[in-house]
Amino acid sequence: MIVFTLEVTLHAPYVHSLKEKRMILRSMIARLRNTFNISVAEVADQDIHQILVLGIAGVTNEKAQADSVIDHVITFIEENGEAQITEVVREFV
């Protein structure tokens, strides 16, 4: 069993309030959960308007499959997100 975690930091320069940030986050979290069957939550910088930090976790049976899921998640966020990825941290257990 392989457990993977991913911390994705995003920047949304057009966001001017926490309400706008929460709207973007709710949408992105729901789409990620439904598409990839993974756990997703905002894990840091919750009071900063333009920075979004997502913590993502999942379980697979092979490291190659975990790498594939992570790559697909990152691509999905880049293509469907309303913010730009500034940092990605991957970990495997």
How would you sum up this structure, described in words?
- The protein starts with a strand and ends with a strand.
- With 93 residues, the chain is an alpha+beta fold.
- The chain has helices at residues 18-36, 63-80; strands at 2-11, 39-44, 51-60, 84-92.
- For the CA atoms, what is the radius of gyration? 13 Å
| Global geometry | elongated
Percent of residues in helices comes to 25-40%
Q: Determine the structural class based on helices, strands and strand pairing.
A: alpha+beta
SSE pattern: EHEEHE
**Assembly state:** single chain
What can be said about the biggest beta sheet?
4 strands, antiparallel
Q: Which segments are poorly predicted (pLDDT under 50) over 5 or more consecutive residues?
A: none
Q: Report how far apart the termini are.
A: 9 Å
Q: What does the average pLDDT come to?
A: 91
Count of separate DSSP helical elements: 2
Number of strands: 4
Q: How is the topology of this model organized?
A:
Elements: E1 2-11, H1 18-36, E2 39-44, E3 51-60, H2 63-80, E4 84-92
Antiparallel strand pairs: 1-3, 1-4, 2-3
Output the keywords.
single chain, alpha+beta, 4-stranded antiparallel sheet, 4 strands
Short description:
With 93 residues, the chain is an alpha+beta fold. The protein is built from 2 helices and 4 strands. The protein has a 4-stranded antiparallel sheet with strand order 2-3-1-4, with helices on one face.
